[in-house]
Amino acid sequence: MIKIKPFKGLYYTDKSTKSNNLSRVVCPPYDIISDEQKAELKSKNQFNAVNLEAPDSYEEAKKSLDDWIKNKILTFDEAPSMYIYEISYKVNNETYRLKGIIGSLKLPEKDEDYIISTQNAINDNKIDRIKLLENTNCQFSPVFMLYDDSENEIQNLIRTSIKSNYLAKSKQNNIIHKIWKISDPEIINCFEELFKNKTYYIADGHSRLEAACSYRDRLRKEQNISDDHPANFIMTFFVDQNNPALTILPTHRIVSNIDMFDSDSMFEQASQYFDIIRCKTIKSTRNTMFGLRRKNKNAFGIYTDGCYSVLVLKDDNIMKEISNQSDEYNSLDVAVLHKLFFEKILNIDSKQITYNKSANEACECVDNGDACFAVFLSATRISEAIDISKNNENMPLNSTLFFPKPMSGFVFYSLNNKI
After folding, report:
1. Number of CB atoms found within 10 A of residue 197's CB
2. For the domain that residue 344 is a member of, what is the CATH number?
3. Which of 71, 83, 107, 250 would disulfide-bridge 379, Cβ 3.0–4.6 Å?
4. Which domain holds residue 332?
5. How far is Cα 162 from Cα 179, in angstroms, rounded to an integer?
6. Nearest to 292 by CA among 272, 313, 273, 307
7. Are both 8 and 132 inside the same structural domain?
8. Is 328 domain-assigned?
9. Helix/strand/coil (H, E, C) string of 221-238?
């Protein structure tokens, strides 16, 4: 049974930040924090959430959490609440606002299917999150869930529920994050009713969800916890999948360690299945890909030997011959890239592929001699990711980088506090 509940959030006090500006204490989700970024975040403020979200050790996270609560760096909300969270940013002088709500979502049982995955959880990340839960009994960043609000019922309620100043805000890389608290039982009950008949798609947090389920199952065996125990729920950021401020960013591929690599031979092999368009710059490559994307043509860009090219699939029937997955899956650019180009044509192993959000950095790897070639992809459409999920399939690895993401540090969810 679907349940969305408020919870007594744990958040920073004015004592820790000197104001309601959390810019120096929030951090991104753990799985996108580099070692360099981690060091930078720690240098900003000794109470930065990175010490909890991505600690040097699980014991350190527990000690920091306990100390911060004891010294009133963090405090619990007085009443069970939901939290409206807004992320705003500008593109070409146009402001986009992504408004969602943070609450606790009941973890599904094995026979329940109201939560649908868009990709597989990474096992190492799942183990990491289980260990963090075991040591701290706290969730530090929400799972990011999408739902369909075509009638704008929830969005309208969110809009009318903001009747006070925001609880806190931060600015990160010209992206502004704000959070409001909703404690009115009547308004919360309205949210609970609107959310209870939805299907949810995981945009980000597959490992966190699986870790929470595993931890709940263990506590049931060891402690026989009740149905209303906080471990039966997970902190969740709910966002309307139709919101124009929500998008998926492309993740590019870098291919290395090909013995006797020869780009002419590669393009010759590819020409059996692809038309090859030569481009002068990375900008013209992207523009060409964008135009082909609008025509629903499968294409991706390649940079090697100082030259740019776009490969355009000649006949999509080849995907039906080499892949036993759905038509929706086979129509993805990233599926064509991996199934046809990497596997069938080049026989490239997954260990030879690394990933980068920056096309320019991917090119630098090639120019530095660290890679044979780089591949540029267009962004996956949100509707495509959802269609794949409806078919009980998972998106290819590193093909659903949702933007923008909520930060860790605005509100935490303690399993020591009753909902």
Report:
1. 9
2. 3.30.1760.10
3. 250
4. 248-399
5. 10
6. 313
7. yes
8. yes
9. HHHCCCCCCHHHEEEEEE
Q: 362 lies in a domain?
A: yes
Say yes or no: 41 and 171 in one domain. Answer: yes
Q: What residue has token string 């049982």?
A: 109
The strand pairing partners of 309, in sequence order, are: 278, 302
Q: Is 419 contained in some domain?
A: no
Residues 304 and 339 in one domain: yes
Give me the sheet containing 353-356, strands edge to edge. 274-279, 307-313, 299-304, 373-376, 252-255, 353-356
How confident is the prediction along the chain (419 residues), in pLDDT tens digits per residue?
Answer: 688 999 999 999 976 666 688 999 999 999 889 899 999 999 999 999 999 999 999 999 999 999 999 999 999 999 999 999 999 999 888 999 999 999 999 999 988 888 888 777 788 899 999 999 999 999 999 999 999 999 999 999 999 999 888 999 999 989 999 999 999 999 999 999 999 989 999 999 999 999 999 999 999 999 989 888 999 999 999 999 999 999 999 999 999 999 999 999 999 999 999 999 999 999 999 999 999 999 999 999 999 999 999 999 999 999 999 999 999 999 999 999 999 999 999 999 889 999 999 999 999 999 999 999 999 999 999 999 999 998 989 888 889 889 999 999 999 999 997 65
Q: Which residue shows structure tokens 């990933």? A: 355
Q: Which residues contact 225 (CB under 8 A, 6 or more apart)?
A: 216, 219, 231, 232
